[in-house]
Amino acid sequence: MPSSWLLIENGTVVDGAGSPASASTSVLVEGNRIVRVGPEATADAVPRGEPLTRIDATGKTVMPGLIDAHCHMTYGESRTEEEIDLYTSPELRTLKAAFHAQKVLRAGVTGISQPGGSYFIGVGLREAIKDRIVQGPRMTSAGRYISTSNSLTDWYPDSVGVPEGSIGILANTVDGMKDEVRRQVKNGVDLIKLADSPYGDYQAFTDDEMKIVADLAHQLGKKVTIHARGSAEVDAAVRAGIDWIMHGNVMSDETIERLARSGRPLVPTLLLLANVADYGARVGAPAPLRDGMKRMLDKTGDSLHRAHEAGVRMVLGTDTGFSVAPYGEWHARELELLMDYAGLSALEAIQAGTQHGALMLGLDGEIGVIAPGMIADIIVVDGDPVKDIRVLQDKRRIETVIQDGRVVVFDEAALARHWPHERGQAYSVTDLTYDLVHGGSGAPGNGDLPELDASDARDLVADLQHREASARTD
Ligand SMILES: [Zn+2]
Q1: How far is the CA of 350 from the centre of ligand 1 (A)?
Q2: What's the CA gap between 91 and 86, in Å, rounded?
Q3: Hey, which bits of 16-144 come out as E strands?
Q4: Amidohydrolase-related domain spans which residues (predicted)?
Q5: According to CATH, where is 3.20.20.140 located in the chain?
Q6: Angle of helix 287-310 relative to helix 253-262, nearest 10 degrees?
C-alpha cells in the first residue's frame, strides 16, 4: 500500500529537544512518522506516484504540537466545584468533553493527559479520539481522584458525602484504595491520581498508603501522579515512587534536592493560579480567591526558581477545564509563566511543552520532538516563539495543526461557540447590607457601589444572564 507523504518546506525548525532554532529547514513525514529533517527532506525522497502534500513554511516556525499534561476534559468550564460534581449529567458532560476536545487541538495542543475527572469519561474520550470518532488531541486519562476525608475533592459535609458525579472518590482505608485502583485499571485508565491536601499544609495520605497505591498501580502496568502542593507531600511522593508530581508550590531546598535526584518531573500548573490572580477580576472571581492565588503564585515562583536551578525537569500543565481556564484558550500561557516563575529560557519552556510531556502520553522518546523516527504531531506557527513565547497563545498564529502526519481541518465557525453554564446557586458575590446601600461604618455609600452591568460580566448572576443571552443570539 502506498504511503501518504507530507513535506513542510523551508521553515524555522524548533525541535522541542532544546536545540537552537534551525532556519530554512524542511521536514518530511511518511505516514504518521517524521522520516527526514534538513537537506535530505525533499520531494525527491518520495516514490513516484505516492500522494504528497506540501506546506510552504517560509518565514514560519515548525515545532512539535504542545502537550498539556494537566487538562480536565470533564470539568466543562465550570464556575464552581458544585457545577463540576453535581449539576451536569454524565451524558451531557461526555458530549461537552467531545466538543471541547476540538478546541484544545485547534490551539495547537496535540496531546493531553487528564489527571482526574468524573466517571470514566476520559477513557471513553481517549478511545473516541483514537478511533477518529471525535476530533481532539491524543490523550491519556486517570479516573476519579483517590481522596481521603482530608484531601482535595471531599468538599461537602459528611451528610452529603462525595457524590457519584464527583471528580473524586473517597477511600479512607488501604483496602478501599486498593479496590479503587483495581476497579479503575479494569475500566481502562492510564494513570491513577491521588488527591493530597488542597493547599499543601499537611499530608492527607500516610507514607504507607501512598506507597501501596503506587506499587499496585505499577504492578498493573499503570502510572500514578499526585496533587501535592507542599514539601511534605512532594517528599512522600518521591519516596513512594509516584511517577510525576503536580504543583510543588512550596518546597524546601532539601525536598527540591531529593526531587531533582529522583529524576521525576514536576508539572507546576501555574496557569490556573495566574489566570485568577491576573484576570479574575474581569470575570467576577472573588477578591479573597484572587489574593490567595496571588500569594500562592509568589511562593511558587520562589520554589520553582530553586527547582529549575537544581535541575528538576518541568512539564507544561494548565488545569484547563474551569471557567477561568477554558478549553483551547490559555494552554500556551503556561510556557510564558514557566519563564517568569521558574526562570526557564524560551527554548527550555518549549521543551517543557513538547518533549517533556511525552512521558505523560505514554510515548516517551516517540513524540514531542522534530526528528526522524518521531510521531508527526507538528504545528506551523506564524511567528517566532523563541523570540516571543506569547505568539503561541494567539490561535490565529497556529496556522497548521498536523496530527499523526495529517493536516487537521477544523470547523472554525462551530468552534467559536459557547453555551450557558449549568445552573448555579449564587445570588450575589457579596452581602447586600443596609450600610453597603446607605453608607455608614466605613462601608461604601450608594454612589460608591461598584458598577455591575451584564456586559461586564463582573457579577456571577449577571455573568450567567449575559452568557445565556449571547448563546441565544448565536
Ligand atoms: Zn487539576
Answers
A1: 21
A2: 13
A3: 22-30, 33-37, 52-56, 61-64, 66-68, 109-114, 138-141
A4: 61-408
A5: 66-363
A6: 60
Predicted pLDDT of residue 56:
98
How far does the centroid of ligand 1 lie from the alpha carbon of residue 43, in Å? Answer: 44
pLDDT band at 442 (very low <50, low <70, confident <90, very high): low
Superfamily of domain 66-363: Metal-dependent hydrolases (3.20.20.140)
Report CA(289)–ligand 1 centroid distance (Å). 17
Cell of 163: 457524590
Assess whether pLDDT exceeds 80 at residue 457: no
**Can you tell me whether residue 28 is helix, strand or coil?**
strand
Residue 425 has what pLDDT?
A: 63
CA atoms within 13 A on the CB side of 32: 7
Instruction: Give pLDDT tens digits for 46-73.
Output: 999 999 999 999 999 999 999 999 999 9
User: In the prediction, which pLDDT does 470 show?
Assistant: 54
- Looking at the predicted structure, is the pLDDT value of residue 145 above 90? yes
- Compute, in angstroms, the gap from residue 117 CA to the centroid of ligand 1: 9
Q: From CA 131, how far away is CA 204, in angstroms rounded? A: 38
Q: How far, in Å, from the CA of 142 to the mean position of ligand 1? A: 11
* Mean pLDDT (the chain, rounded): 91
pTM of this prediction? 0.91
379, amino acid identity: I
Which residue type occupies 74? T
Q: Which residues surround ligand 1, an ion (CB under 5 A)?
A: 319
Cα 115 to ligand 1 centroid, rounded to whole Å: 6
CA of 221 to the centre of ligand 1 (A): 23
Q: Ligand 1 centroid vs 72 CA: distance in angstroms?
A: 7
